[in-house]
Design a protein that fits this description.
- The protein contains 5 helices and 22 strands.
- Strand 11 and strand 12 form a beta hairpin.
Amino acid sequence: MSSIKIINPGLYTTIQDLGRFGFQQYGMPVSGAMDEFAFRIGNILAGNWQNTPAIEFTYTGLTVEFQNSAHIAITGGDFIVSTDKGDHIPCWSTLYIEGGTTLSISSILSGCRGYLCIYGGFDIPKVMGSASTYLRAKIGGLNGHLIKAGDEIPYLPQEGVPPSRLLPKAFIQKWYSSNSPIRVIMGPQDEAFTTEGIQNFLTGEYSVTKDADRMGYRLSGPPIAHKTGPDIISDGIAIGSIQVPGNGMPVIMLAERQTTGGYTKIATVITVDLPRLSQSIPGNILRFIPVSIEEGHTLLKEFYSDIDFIDSMTYKSNKKYYSIQVKNKTFKVIVEEI
């Protein structure tokens, strides 16, 4: 059986896929990868189906030993990655790792989350149709716990090799622009807030606090005032829902959010901005801008269209450029532009 061995698990490292759907009515959160774009692209670059289980790591410190040769991809934040052989490993590309190699993610330049995807996928049993780790219920992943030093994680070897691919920087710049406001659809309870409260939300700057994890991000900034009070009859919470409790400080609900909640929700982050949001760290400043449902749908179609486009690309390289072949058409991309 092919496997990797965890030497240093880092700060918060788990097995994730796209999540556990169909059970929120019973109180079971979806969980799954925080950064859907990086997760899907990582699997594409590794030669996998997009929902193949991968390792999600947070901040820095992940060190693994490859017991066998493997093709991998590392995506997400801007990490410095190297091997014990002195090689510096580029992120967002298909990589070949020889058996016996130790790979280390030593520091982070930007963002906070990354994905280690391996050709064939990690061999993890599914619970309720998903391999995702949900720590509060101690299910999924490696017996429902954080990955720890000494863990050996098996993966399914595949015949042949995946296509060699490298994600052009244009896609990263498009979906991870750090200077742009987070786009939201107002509601469903925006009528519960004062005009001044809504104005504060849409014009103010909010800092990500230390209380930021896979369940949600607590923010600090201009208070968002309610007309009467923060409480409602509990209703469903979508990923990206922005609750505002009585202190007027917004909380953005994320992958491991509870299934229902009794606080008013002023807005919901659109799907395509969740990957960028998930790479925010305490101290980062967030601003919000409203968009229509129609615009959100248009952007979502564009988001998945880009993923499909990337999934269709193959690369051949020389010293001057990468040749990208897409559906029988070939495009040359200058190396400096990648």
